[in-house]
Design brief:
By secondary structure, the chain is mainly β. It has two helices and 17 strands. β2 and β3 form a beta hairpin. The N terminus is likely disordered.
């Protein structure tokens, strides 16, 4: 039987209570922390996003099997309606592109990936790179689109030294129509201890301070476009080619 206390639970949903390892146990053994959490998001014009997530987790001297990454599949749109997200995991690697063993434990309400090996424990700092696609993320009203995304989430049981992100917009978007902001803190917080910059169609943001356990950075991006929400197969293929070329550079390291 797996000793669940030897796993670390990671999540981006505010309602997830990590039962895999008590918060007190984390600090009683050896200080664990996320030293770097970087997300790269590419918005594609069929209301999907392509995500690369790089998480560097320092387990200290604690012996762990790995991490569990969880994201809620249900969100609330700007109209207060519940929207169900769809996730497609492409690959999980380390920073060198070496594949991790993982198990997809997703269910109807949660995207859940367990990374690590039952018969092997690790200590110290390890980097996990997730590549996945999420559908039904953008809110739309006429020709206005809105993306609201929790970069790390509220369910963490450890502090985080730095969180950063880059949001890449489609080529047909007029940068003059883009409005972006970021928020930090506990769920519902309006604090803005984060820096945000826009260079053409790329938005960069980073936290201005370390975040405590349970704190998150959220990015909100809106833009206008007269392009249809769902592109033709030919247009979508062209967009996906760019993504898979980037993914191929990672996969080539695996063989």
């Amino acid at each position: 039987m797996i000793k669940l206390a030897t796993w670390i639970g990671l999540t981006v949903t505010a309602v997830f209570l990590c039962m895999l390892i008590p918060v007190q146990a984390v600090h009683a053994e050896s200080a664990e922390k996320v030293t770097d959490f970087h997300t790269s998001i590419r918005i594609i014009p069929n209301e999907n996003i392509m995500v690369q997530e790089r998480i560097t987790f320092d387990f200290g001297t604690n012996e762990r099997h790995g991490i569990i990454r969880e994201i809620s599949k249900v969100r609330e749109d700007v109209y207060g309606k519940q929207v169900r997200l769809s996730f497609e995991l492409m690959v999980v690697t380390d920073e060198q592109g070496n594949a991790y063993k993982y198990r997809d434990e997703s269910d109807a309400d949660m995207f859940r990936i367990r990374v690590g090996e039952i018969d092997r424990t690790i200590t110290g700092s390890h980097t996990y790179v997730f590549h996945y696609i999420v559908s039904n993320v953008l809110d739309r009203s006429s020709n206005m689109y809105l993306l609201s995304w929790d970069i790390n989430g509220f369910g963490w049981t450890v502090p985080m030294e730095e969180i950063s992100a880059k949001i890449r917009l489609p080529a047909f978007i007029d940068p003059e129509t883009v409005d972006a902001s970021c928020f930090t803190g506990d769920f519902g917080s309006t604090e803005r201890e984060c820096s945000i910059e826009q260079a053409d169609r790329v938005i960069s943001l980073v936290t201005d301070r370390a975040l405590r356990s349970g704190e998150n950075m959220t990015v909100v991006v809106s833009f206008e476009t007269d392009q249809p929400a769902v592109q033709s197969a030919q247009q979508m293929n062209a967009i996906l080619v760019v993504f898979f070329i980037e993914l191929l550079s990672v996969l080539q390291m695996l063989f």
